[in-house]
Amino acid sequence: MSTPIEYYATGKRKTAIARVRLRAGTGEVHLNDKALDDYFGGHEALKMVAKQPFAVTETTEKFDVLAIVTGGGPAAQAGAVRHGISRALCEFNLELRKRLKKAGFLTRDARIKERKKYGQKGARRRFQFSKR
Predict the structure, then answer these.
(1) Nearby residues of 67 by Cβ (< 8 Å), 6 or more positions away
(2) Domains and CATH numbers, the chain
(3) In what order do the strands lie in the sheet with 6-13?
(4) How large is the angle between the packed helices 74-92 and 44-57, nearest 10 degrees?
(5) Is 44:51 a contact under the CB 8 Å cutoff?
């Protein structure tokens, strides 16, 4: 049995979903067919968040990342990419899991918008109570 050429994983955060593929390469990151710098623009913090798993596992320039990201906002998308890269790195080498788990990159951030309930104005907001 041969080792796969690319590693696939799905990362999620809030309502953002990132389908991530890792290939052996030079460290280029492409999100929705755009370079990381073009996709997140001037948000240096978001670029750093997306690359964190490589820094923790010391695999910075070993892989190229191709990701398709949908849903959520920019911060949630960066978190989803980080989650996906972390999962794909675990698929590449299971020994990296310990470091990624300790850094908290394998935990899915499940916070999503709470649904509106019937007979109410919002998820938690009620109509004003009138005694008389």
Answers:
(1) 18, 19, 20, 21, 29, 30, 31, 32, 81, 84
(2) 6-103 (3.30.230.10)
(3) 6-13, 16-24, 63-70, 29-31, 34-35
(4) 10
(5) no
Q: Is the pTM of this model over 0.85?
A: yes
Short-list 55, 46, 54, CA closest to 88: 54
Cα separation, 92 vs 64, in Å, equals 13
Q: Which residue has the tokens 């309502």?
A: 15
Q: What does the pLDDT read at residue 1?
A: 52
Contact 64, 10 (CB under 8 A): no
pLDDT in tens, 43-88: 999 999 999 999 999 988 899 999 999 999 999 999 999 999 999 9
Q: How many residues does the chain have?
A: 132
**Number of CB atoms found within 10 A of residue 97's CB:** 17
